[in-house]
Structure formats: C-alpha cells, structure tokens
Amino acid sequence: MMLQPDHITQEMYQEALSQLRKKRGDNPALTKMRLEPFHEGLCVQTMHVGPYSAEPATLDKMYAFARENGYRLRGKHHEIYLGDPRRADPEKLKTILRHPIEKDAL
Asked: Which pTM was predicted?
C-alpha cells in the first residue's frame, strides 16, 4: 500500500500505468495494482524504523498497547512503505504499521 495525494484521479493513475507498461513491458504484477480509497476507521499505528524482518516485534508492541488500553484487533494489519528497499540501508527503512481496532466489550 502506498499513500497517494488526494488530487490523483483514476484517469491520472490509468495514464501513469499505461506509460509504465510502455516503458517496462506488461509485467504481471501490474494487474494487481489499483487506486482506491481506503477507510479503515479507528486503528493503532506506529512508525517502524528498520528492516522488514524486525516488524513482528514492533507489531507485538502495538498489539500489547491496544490490549492494555481496552481495545481488540479487527481485520488485518497493513503497511505503508516510506522508503525504497532497493536504495535504502535496511536499518533506515521506514514503514508505517497500522491495524484496525475496536473497543473491547469486556
């Protein structure tokens, strides 16, 4: 998932995708891309700095925070990548980790 500015339209996205296909060929991964709004509601989130392999420990801290504050997880977590793993030192990669939550009824 990559956050896009609000001014990006479906037409702009399709044009960029068309240009990418002309430049790079018809990569099968391009068929999985989409531009769509995403509304998840209340969530717990944090900025993870470091390699992707270290994310589970950060997620565990998020989940503990949610439980300790009377929330439970709902749905799946997702990640917003702020760095390019091909160019950045893994120790400096920045990823926003988010997980939808709801107030625990207990």
From this structure: 0.70
